[in-house]
Write a structure and sequence with these properties.
374 residues, alpha+beta, five-stranded antiparallel beta sheet
């Protein structure tokens, strides 16, 4: 889901001042890459696709709320389509084919049926125009098209070796982009001032200023939204400090504490599974495991996701710096949740299974795996 990305990109194409208001650029303090803005660091749960010595890859916000678009279609799209269909059946089809459509039954149009034709053009036609406009508002103005026939999720990769940030997102949300790490500025409270685009979900935004401040077209200006939905600016500050310390210093300890709600002082090479999320289109069971939704939320999310595709990094970017992709090498890249899923599905090789258990398993499990190998 790309609700904030779509809103920012749409306003950026129309007027720079509106896109800046969308992220509250002038209404908050800016934090460059050499300043933390937080005393502690924290990785939110279900935020990281992968973490290793070369890169940290995070999700974008909104995935847990994608089901709302599906249930919203029941109250917006279905009634609107019904009105348009009735207008066509009573007003258009009789003119073109001499028959009236009562929903699905079709009857011949006779001169005495002129009241139906009149009703279709005088009453249903304005309603059909309004319904078509409502569909336009729902998908474009309110941004619900980002939940269908799009990328399933966004991917933001912080590469500490190349000092670049690689972003995957749909074309109408700004498209794929490579940003310079040193130019990024963190915004902890990117709440829009527009009543149309205002969001109640806290998140971390990273603003990339234009190359030339005096350029009226603001070439190079961009903004990316990193991590899941957060509880407030303080949690956004803690996530920013985690990203900043990782990019500047890299992993400093082997493992993080098992308690996903705690803060800690070091960046772990081997993340605890609670901090990670599946890299790919998850199954219904995997979505329930990570988000713990109800039956309704899960069903509507899967209806939306089935139309989406999983984004892959272009090979010409060389964004993995030799580590590989999380989908292909989940153990080596530190894609813990992905490795767990692959292990349950029997996709890990014996060597990968042993390496996985050495980092995330018990000593007993390692011994058992090694004995099976022999």
């Amino acid at each position: 889901m790309f609700i904030r990305e779509e809103g920012y990109a749409r306003l950026r194409r129309s007027e720079t001042s509106k896109s800046r208001a969308h992220i509250n650029l002038e209404g908050q303090k800016h934090w460059p890459t050499d300043r933390s803005g937080a005393r502690g660091i924290e990785m939110p749960s279900r935020a990281a696709y992968a973490q290793n010595d070369a890169y940290l890859e995070l999700c974008n916000p909104g995935w847990d709320l994608q089901w709302r678009a599906g249930i919203g279609n029941l109250y917006v799209i279905l009634p609107a389509i019904l009105v348009i269909w009735c207008w066509y059946g009573f007003a258009v089809h009789p003119v073109l084919f001499g028959k009236i459509i009562f929903f699905f039954p079709v009857v011949d149009y006779r001169p005495r049926d002129w009241p139906f034709l009149l009703m279709g053009w005088l009453l249903l036609f304005p309603l059909a125009i309004g319904s078509a406009f409502l569909i336009y508002l729902w998908f474009y103005r309110m941004g619900m098209r980002i939940c269908f026939f799009s990328y399933a999720r966004g991917r933001i990769r912080f590469n500490r070796l190349t000092r670049k940030v690689y972003v995957l997102r749909p074309d109408y949300c700004g498209g794929n982009v490579v940003l310079d790490w040193e130019r990024l500025v963190a915004l902890f409270d990117p709440q829009s001032t527009s009543r149309w685009d205002k969001q109640s979900i806290a998140m971390l935004a990273l603003y990339h200023p234009p190359f030339d401040p005096s350029d009226q077209t603001a070439k190079g200006e961009d903004c990316i939204f990193v991590g899941p939905g957060l509880s407030g600016p303080q949690e956004a500050a803690s996530l920013w400090e985690y990203i900043r310390q990782y990019t500047e210093a890299g992993p400093t300890v082997d493992h993080v504490p098992a308690d996903a709600s705690s803060t800690y002082k070091g960046i772990a090479r081997y993340l605890h599974p609670d901090y990670t999320t599946y890299c790919g289109k998850p199954s219904r069971r995997q979505y329930q495991l990570e988000q713990k939704p109800g039956f309704m939320e899960t069903s509507f999310h899967m209806m939306s996701q089935v139309t989406c595709s999983w984004p892959a990094f272009p090979k010409e970017w060389q964004s993995d710096s030799g580590m590989g992709e999380p989908e292909d090498k989940p153990v080596q890249t530190g894609a813990v949740m992905t490795a767990l899923v692959y292990r349950m599905q029997g996709k890990l090789s014996k060597a990968d299974d042993i390496e996985f258990l050495q980092h995330w398993g018990t000593a007993e499990a390692v011994q058992e795996a090694m004995s099976r190998k022999e």
